[in-house]
Design a protein that fits this description.
The chain is of the alpha/beta class and 292 residues long. It contains 13 helices and nine strands. Strands 3-2-1-4-5-6 form a six-stranded parallel β-sheet, with helices on both faces.
Length: 292
């Protein structure tokens, strides 16, 4: 990871939600001059009160004078709206870094539009959840121009433990899709294994402790196994968000011909959790549909 202790830079951060707020905070903590924008202005004002810097009423005004603009918003249409406005304010050579999880299609679209404005657009989704954002240890997977990546990477290192250039525009989002495919399958397998242990009369916590020392070990087991057994599902990354991400995966798979039958099935299992009222529970709540 590149040292993030370079001279202060003028940056903007657009979108101060569960992930964006802490990420912008790490930029401020590192000494950079941060201007923030949020659709709900009160959230931007609260961020400034906590971290310093300043807020702006529009993406365009936030981006004015910035070397690098960061986005962390909801879906494709949000990225289109915010990025399009921000890039009109950037000087030639400026960089927009999109940390949202969206389609590779919109990332390529924004990359092409940015080039028309003589600026650059990087798709840079993250993994690590709310805890990773707060601790500044996210994994950042980046697609786009290599020189633009080199310019923005020291800033991303303020909140990223691993920041990797994956290839041309769209490669970051495609890598995030792989990440979500793997998570979905792992969480479902973990839920089934723990449910099986309970039905078999085993002490589930002892099961997690012993098998996590062997070939079944995973981040999900280490961090969610015991809480799943305890029925605790309030760890940040909501089922609604995962369904959005898996929808992106399934759309891309239809385009590129990839076979993802398990992912499609787990997506329907998450729909069951939503039907149970679990929209805002975290993704480990797949356990609920096996133990109700």
């Amino acid at each position: 990871m590149t040292d993030s202790s370079s001279a202060p830079r003028n940056v903007a951060f657009l979108g101060l939600g569960t992930m964006g707020g802490p990420m912008a905070g790490h930029l401020a903590k590192a000494g950079h001059n941060v201007t923030v924008y949020n659709r709900t202005a009160a959230k931007a004002e609260a961020w400034v009160a906590a971290h310093g810097g300043r807020s702006a009423p529009t993406p365009e005004e936030a981006a004015t004078g910035a070397d690098v603009v960061f986005l962390c918003v909801g879906g494709d249409d949000d990225v289109r709206a915010v990025a399009t406005e921000a890039m009109t304010a950037l000087a030639p050579g400026g960089v927009i870094v999109d940390h949202s999880t969206v389609s590779a299609t919109v990332s390529r679209e924004m990359d092409a539009l940015a080039r028309e404005h003589k600026v650059f657009f990087l798709d840079a989704p993250v993994s690590g959840g709310q805890a990773g954002a707060e601790k500044g240890i996210l994994t950042v997977m980046v697609g786009g121009d290599a020189d633009a990546f080199a310019k923005a990477e020291p800033l991303m290192a303020c909140f990223g433990r691993s920041v990797v250039h994956m290839g041309p525009s769209g490669a970051g989002q495609l890598t995030k899709m792989v990440n979500q495919i793997c998570i979905a399958g792992l969480v479902q397998a973990l839920a089934e294994g723990l449910s099986f242990a309970q039905q078999a009369g085993l002490d589930g916590h002892k099961v997690v402790d012993v098998i996590s020392k062997g070939a079944a070990q995973s981040w999900q087991m280490e961090n969610r196994g015991h809480t799943m057994l305890d029925g605790k599902f309030d760890f940040g990354f909501a089922v609604d968000w995962m369904r959005k991400d898996l929808g992106i995966v399934l759309d891309e798979a239809r385009r590129n011909g990839a076979k993802v039958p398990v992912t499609a099935l787990v997506d329907q299992f998450y729909a069951d959790v939503q039907a149970m009222g679990g929209n805002r529970l975290d993704t480990s709540s797949l356990m609920k549909r096996l133990t109700r």
